[in-house]
Amino acid sequence: MGNNDNNNISTKNQTSSKYWRCLVFSILLNFAFFGYNLYFSVVDDGGLSWSRGAAGEAEAVASISCSGHGRAYLDGVISAGDGLPVCECNTCYGGSDCSQFSPSCSADADGGNPLFLEPYWRQRAAASALVVSGWHRMGYSFPDGTNISPELERHIRQLHAVVGNAVTEGRFIVFGAGSTQLLNAAVHALSPGGGGGVAAGVVATAPFYPIYELQTEYFASVDFQYQGDTSLWIAGGNSSSEKKNLPDGKTIIEFVTSPNNPDGKLNEAVLKGPNFKAIYDRAYYWPHFTPIPAADDGELKIFTLSKLTGHAGSRFGWAIVKDEDVYNKMLMHMQLNTMGVSRDTQLRALKLLKTIMAEGGGRTIFDFGYQTMKSRWEKLRKVVSVSKRFSLQDVSSHYCVFSGRVRESSPAYGWLKCEREEESDCYGVLKAAGIIGRGGSVFYATDRNVRLSLIKTRDDFDLLVDKLQKLVSAEQDEEEGGGDGNGIEQHVANVTEYQPLRRRM
Amino acid sequence: MGNNDNNNISTKNQTSSKYWRCLVFSILLNFAFFGYNLYFSVVDDGGLSWSRGAAGEAEAVASISCSGHGRAYLDGVISAGDGLPVCECNTCYGGSDCSQFSPSCSADADGGNPLFLEPYWRQRAAASALVVSGWHRMGYSFPDGTNISPELERHIRQLHAVVGNAVTEGRFIVFGAGSTQLLNAAVHALSPGGGGGVAAGVVATAPFYPIYELQTEYFASVDFQYQGDTSLWIAGGNSSSEKKNLPDGKTIIEFVTSPNNPDGKLNEAVLKGPNFKAIYDRAYYWPHFTPIPAADDGELKIFTLSKLTGHAGSRFGWAIVKDEDVYNKMLMHMQLNTMGVSRDTQLRALKLLKTIMAEGGGRTIFDFGYQTMKSRWEKLRKVVSVSKRFSLQDVSSHYCVFSGRVRESSPAYGWLKCEREEESDCYGVLKAAGIIGRGGSVFYATDRNVRLSLIKTRDDFDLLVDKLQKLVSAEQDEEEGGGDGNGIEQHVANVTEYQPLRRRM
Q: Residue B59 and residue A75: Cβ atoms within 8 Å?
């Protein structure tokens, strides 16, 4: 055996030994990885334990495809087919995955479902997700003995400070199941009460949100009564300085909606003075819908999550109250009516507000909301502005403390008017054309006006604009062609023709 | 070089080659593990994506140690120290981890916080966890246009079928924010209404839950009035067949609580006949508290999640209604009052009911609840039975359709009575001895009775029994020693002495 062979043997021995060490090391690493994976899959599954299953279930439901025209929810009706919750489709879409569009279906611009904000939350799935333990807040009260979450109240105050739409410093805050519950709580609290005195009169200025009357009449209290339009309380119908004389001990409670529902106007109280009290319904007083000229510093203003975050189903609102006596009365109302607002709702609202505050200093959702509404108004005006048959309300411009500049309103609703004298039933005109709005008579105006909801899903808005466009086009064809008065009939024929499925992923 | 060397070289070559192949394989395996871990930690983190963060946050809060004498919640006030929610401690416990027991602190047996069920849910953390997406049910309605979850309604009917405590077949179900909201909804619905007729009279039989009067009077409607005890409506105060004659058009609405709050009796309506209507408050009609002799098949019965699962903070209840007209009126009440119950609450309630139904055919929670209450009553009776100074209400026995045997009641409350003639203020007697109960006068009985809550945490119950034991022991010492009437004073001295911290992990 020569040196070369010995060297070769020696080298091979060293190589073999090196492979052996590498192999041992590599195998140890294999065991380490294996053990790590085993640990986390059996014991701790990615660092989670008891929440893992629920999280997986929620993600599975969220990933159910509804063709971009609907969504499935965790508590939806279960499909017999796959045991999963069904897709709940946008109007005019159907089928198990919401991909079937019905061309002859009417656009639904009736209700105020604020789904225009749904994309905002879908885009922030991680930030806005909430995990609720089985033992979360089982008790009746928070540690301070109240049924009002201190953390949620704190976030509400923070948000108002960011937006600048309401003074909260030194004010009391009451929670309610939507502003709906707080409206009547406020009426109770502002009424002199005691049953023996003169019942307070509850009034509002047409057009106004009908709940004020319906609710007040339903609760038919000995302490307050719905007493009509504010104009009835103005002598000569001219100005608030010429109010009618009130009977002794009479209080008038005025609902002021600002921005107004249905027309978006930044209203002020009409009746002012001793014994005239105002409840400011500020549901729409957010940059999505209006410039913010100033922070509301009034006695009593009510807000709702519905029109801030879009979570109408959560039933959460709050009142900001100056007077401590009024505050205490509203608290008592909440206690006797429902023992406060659900702790589940308060937890959800807190999560949503935290998500808002964590982005852009709390401003991003308003940029999102405003851009969406602005864009929708541009499209709407583009269609309606060429029409002589229809008109939309003017929108005002104001300096906005939130955006730091003058801007236009972008109201939640179009307040459409039929201009042709013979078309006093504008609701009927639109209905025949495949658009379901809400007739002005619902708001104590006339059906010459129709409220069109602009805050629903994109599908809803696109369909509304589509149908309006057809109406306006028919109007223009009529004018150009001399017309034979059959514009409506022709339009009905038009909308029943086949339209290709619209796909949006 | 001989054959041996060649063989050796050959063997070594083969070995080296084998090591090399093993090494290559092992290295590839490492890459595979690495890639797998990288994928799941960066992209999918254990199979989860958007819910991961929220799940981790919830688990972190749940794992905050409060010494077994409290708990931290996701929406609790944030501690300045560690940025985590603070521990919320059981009565008489304090400190940042609830480990500080205050010996001189009074036992709080006042409220009906149903935390006795908290351990049931903690033990089922995985089954009862709920993940809510940021876009969950933003809209006002379910697909059927109502604000009542079909899945939740379905589970409620299933549960009643398991327990056998209420007929739901062919009945309508209305949801409310706790039974609290439904009580007044029912009064509205059963009143003739219209404002012009005779106001319905609302009555109940003492001792009764004061909300019936407080709520009815607060809502001071023109359609109904609180009109006192049922005995006022019985001619000669003898039997329901000798009711006083009602004025024309007069309706009497009787609240019947069964089992009763405060004394646990299985009451029946006292006033029956035309124009006498009954609202059965069945809050406690579950096996935790009572045998179930039969399924309630009455016109209108109301249940609450509070006393079924213990989730009083969720504010969820339901009414089971026979008459469709009454049902529609209650729906209208819910719509005008709050536009239904929060979708967050309905989702939570569904999760809780699903958790119940998934175990033991829906029976396990009732075994848990009954065993807990039975054990507590045994301890309570053991202490009180040797006393001549105090007595507890008798509990009745009935055949129970749920358990298939005769069993005793295990009421939510002890209805303690001071037997000594001079101790007509039993509430004061107990208060001086470090027990805060709820005086009988709150329930339109006298303060000779005191309601003691037996449904709170184990800490609360143990403390109550502890203080009662001391009272009874002092009584016996007094009797044995001839006594000098200083039993109470001695007891007060006793309870202020140092007591070792009680630890339960």
A: no
Geometric angle at alpha carbon A244, from A239 and A250, rounded to 5°: 125
pLDDT at A500 over 50: no
Question: What are B403's two structure tokens?
Answer: 């358990």
Q: How close does chain B come to A422, measured CA to CA in Å?
A: 34
Shortest distance, CA B185 to any CA of chain A (angstroms)? 10
- In terms of Cβ atoms closer than 10 Å to its own Cβ (0-12, 13-18, 19+), residue A266 is middle
Q: Are B223 and A218 inside 8 Å of each other by CB? A: no
Rounded Cα distance between A427 and A435, Å, is 9
A 10 A CB-CB count for A273 gives 11
pLDDT digit string (tens) for A431-481?
999 999 999 999 999 999 999 999 999 999 999 999 999 999 999 998 888
The shortest CB-CB distance from A77 to any of B1, B134, B151 is to B151
Least confident stretch, A1-5, A455-459, B342-346, B461-465: A1-5
> 3-state DSSP call for residue B95?
coil
Partners of residue A129 in chain B, C-beta under 8 Å: 50-51, 53-55, 131-134
Subunit contact B46:A48, Cβ cutoff 8 A = yes
Give φ, ψ of B480 to 5 degrees.
Answer: -70, -40
Q: Is B483 within 8 Å of B491 (Cβ atoms)? A: no
Put simply, the answer to whether B48 touches A37 (Cβ < 8 Å) is no
SS3 content of chain B, % helix, strand, coil (to 5): 40, 15, 40
Q: Give the model confidence (pLDDT) of B235-253 as tens digits.
A: 654 444 445 677 888 999 9
Q: Tell me A402's DSSP state.
A: T
How far is the C-alpha of B204 from the C-alpha of B279, rounded, in Å? 10
How distant, in Å, are the alpha carbons of A436, A453, B20 from that of A458? 16, 12, 62
Tell me: ipTM over 0.85. Answer: yes
**Closest to A202 in 3D by CA, of A214, A194, A79:** A214
pTM equals 0.88
H-state helical runs in A39-132: 52-62, 118-122, 125-128
Cβ distance of A46 and B29 shorter than 8 Å: no
Of B77, B135, B315, the CB nearest to A150: B77
* Structure-derived torsion over alpha carbons of residues B373, B375, B376, B380, reported in degrees to the nearest 10: 140
- Comparing CB atoms, the residue among B12, B314, B344 nearest residue A314 is B344
Check CB contact under 8 Å for A348 and B132: yes
Strands (E), B222-375: 224-229, 252-257, 276-281, 300-304, 317-321
* Paired tokens of B297: 């098949």
CB-closest option in B48, B124, B188 to A59: B48
**For residue B51, which residues of chain A lie inside 8 Å, CB to CB?**
55, 58-59, 125-126, 129, 131
- Across the interface, of A58, A71, A347, the residue whose CB is closest to B74 is A347
- Cβ atoms within 10 Å, residue A364: 16
* A145, closest residue in chain B (CA to CA): B111
Question: How many CB pairs (< 8 A) connect A and B?
Answer: 391
Contact A258, A281 (CB under 8 A): yes
Q: Which of A188, A333, A355 sits opposite B134 (nearest CB)?
A: A355
Contact B37 A34 (CB under 8 A): no
Dist CA B387 CA B470 (whole Å)? 11
Between CA B295 and CA B495 the distance in angstroms is 46
Which of A294, A226, A238 is closest to A270 using CA atoms? Answer: A238
Say if residues B281 and B209 touch (Cβ distance below 8 Å): yes
As a whole number of angstroms, the distance between CA A100 and CA A503 comes to 10
Residue reference for tokens 């009497």: B252
Are A223 and B223 within 8 A, CB to CB?
no
